[in-house]
Amino acid sequence: MSDLSCADPAGSVGAFLCRAGQHLRAAAIENPRMEARLLLAEAMGVDQSALLREPRAPVPPPAAARFGEMLRRRLAHEPMAFLLGRQGFWTLELEVSPETLIPRADSEAIVEAALAVLPSPGGRVLDLGTGTGCLLLAVLSERPDAFGVGVDLAPGAAALAARNAAANGLAGRAAFLAGDWATALSGRFDLVLSNPPYIESAAIPGLMPEVAAHEPARALDGGVDGLDAYRRIVAALPDLLQPQGCAVLELGLGQRAAVSALAEAAGLAIRGCHADLGGVERALVLAAR
């Protein structure tokens, strides 16, 4: 049964999906059929399967209004995750907002690398630039004895991460605060995580509009060479890590050599680098000497 049947009655599920799919395709949105279903299901408060079962069912006026507004925003290339207000990551469902980067599957390589080096039972974990809290919360979900601290420059992001901890049953083992990287912290950690801004400033306008126009610039812009945040983080790591502690940093494409050089200059050892599912060297593992 097609979900884009323009032969369905005006005002029906099928007709709404047909028109939305056409608009999304014209706006160069990938997977227009799937996105139309996601938006209409969200607006109507039903599962997508209900749309496919009853394409001739009427769309109630309040749902039609919600759908129209969500479609308008998506046609302006606002990310789907911001329209829905949530995004899946690892085994968690997380609240997202324009104050944070949207968690991406590529970053799950950082979680895998972290779990490989964090003792079990786990110890103290620090997440610098926590955003939604996705990295820290994913690690805590797999290490029930670990405790973590997440830091973000934006107070709104730190508050959002705390809500995500509570929603996923992890509030008792996670604390979040607003701060400038590690400057407000004392004490040492068994594991430090970070997905810092690493895109070269000049490259940001050329990113897909969902990213360049809607995700927070402070979480994207890594300076002229993309390495500004790494310089600050690796300089702080020797004072943050326990003697046997490790750090796992997310990398951008082709950044392994440059970030490794910064880490070695700071007195850190390179433990390895994990690739994401696309084969990109994504998770650099560092250790205290």
TrEMBL record:
S-adenosyl-L-methionine binds at residues 129-133, 152, 181, 195. Its EC number is 2.1.1.297. Belongs to the protein N5-glutamine methyltransferase family. PrmC subfamily. Methylates the class 1 translation termination release factors RF1/PrfA and RF2/PrfB on the glutamine residue of the universally conserved GGQ motif. HAMAP family: RF_methyltr_PrmC (MF_02126). Substrate binds at residues 195-198. The gene is prmC. Pfam families: MTS (PF05175), PrmC_N (PF17827). It catalyses: L-glutaminyl-[peptide chain release factor] + S-adenosyl-L-methionine = N(5)-methyl-L-glutaminyl-[peptide chain release factor] + S-adenosyl-L-homocysteine + H(+). One of its GO terms (biological process) is methylation. The keyword S-adenosyl-L-methionine applies. Residues 19-85 form the Release factor glutamine methyltransferase N-terminal domain. This is Release factor glutamine methyltransferase. It comes from Teichococcus rhizosphaerae. Keywords: Methyltransferase, S-adenosyl-L-methionine, Transferase. Residues 117-203 form the Methyltransferase small domain. It comes from the Bacteria. One of its GO terms (molecular function) is nucleic acid binding. Transmembrane segments: none annotated. PANTHER family: HEMK METHYLTRANSFERASE, MTRF1L RELEASE FACTOR GLUTAMINE METHYLTRANSFERASE. InterPro entries: DNA_methylase_N6_adenine_CS (IPR002052), HemK-like (IPR004556), N5-glutamine_MTase (IPR050320), PrmC_N (IPR040758), RF_methyltr_PrmC (IPR019874), SAM-dependent_MTases_sf (IPR029063), Small_mtfrase_dom (IPR007848).
